[in-house]
Each structure stands twice: as C-alpha cells, then as structure tokens.
Amino acid sequence: MPSQPSKILETFPNPQTDRDYTIRIRIPEFTCLCPKTGQPDFATIFIDYIADKECVELKSLKMYIWSFRDEGAFHEAVTNQMLSDLVKACSPRFMRIRSEFNVRGGVYTDVVVEHRAPGWEPPPPVVLP
Question: Structural domain of residue 42, as residue ranges?
C-alpha cells in the first residue's frame, strides 16, 4: 500500500494572514471502533476553521483521519482529540469540529467542540435585507 495511516498533521503557510476567512472541510468516511463492543462506528466529520499563520495540509489530514480506523474511542473523546491535535498543529484563530455519528441502537450522536485563540474576536455578522 503506498499510503499508510499517520498521526502526523502537516501544515503550510496561510496565503492570506491579514484576513479572517473560513476553511470548511467535510469528511464523510470517518470510522473508529466502539470501545465497548469493538464494532465499527461511522461518522461524518465537519471541520470549520479560521487559520492564523498555518493551514492544515489535506493529504496529511486524510492519513490522520484514517489512523482512527482500528482504534476504540468514545465519540466525545475522539472529537476532542481531533480538536486538540489540529489546534496543536496549526494554531488557528478559531476552529469548530462537529462529529455526526451514524445511528447505533436507535441513537444518533453529534459532538461539537470549539477552540478560540486568546484575544481573537469574530467579525460581526452581516445581515442582508
């Protein structure tokens, strides 16, 4: 196999550091294992962030997401781990991760976690008529 799962997140310089702009990433094929049963859990991961000096490189993100495939993890724990790892890698101004897990035993789980850099204030919302 030419590619392997990896916990290493690579970055590249933000091409527009003087502007707050949102980067949205959707990962519809996330899998991990239930730590109680060992059965697979499936989710769509939504990552929204405002970069500061660095952006996350997408191939390394794909390999990082793949690294959870054979690990047992509670939904809450894996979502918080992703946020911690991504914030450590790229120090964004803002980041939100939402994990939308598929139904398991009649129960859907969504987990939302956020990070705000100290001193960062979001721009005021634009209200159009």
Answer: 21-116
- From 18, 32, 34, 90, active-site residue: 34
pTM of the model as a whole? 0.94
Q: What CATH number is given to the structural domain containing 44?
A: 3.30.1130.10
What is the spatial distance between Cα 79 and Cα 67, in angstroms, rounded to a whole number? 14
Length, in residues, of the chain: 129
Residue in the structure block whose two tokens are 């239930």: 34
pLDDT digits (tens, 9 = 90+) for 57-76: 999 999 999 999 999 999 99
Verify whether residue 34 is a known catalytic residue: yes
Tokens representing 37? 């049963």
Which residue, among 4, 104, 89, has the nearest Cα to 47 in the 3D structure? 89
Max Cα–Cα distance, the chain, nearest Å: 54
Token readout for 62 is 């794909």
Q: Which two tokens stand for residue 72?
A: 């047992």
Q: Which of 32, 41, 55, 90 is catalytic?
A: 41
* 78's tokens: 């894996």
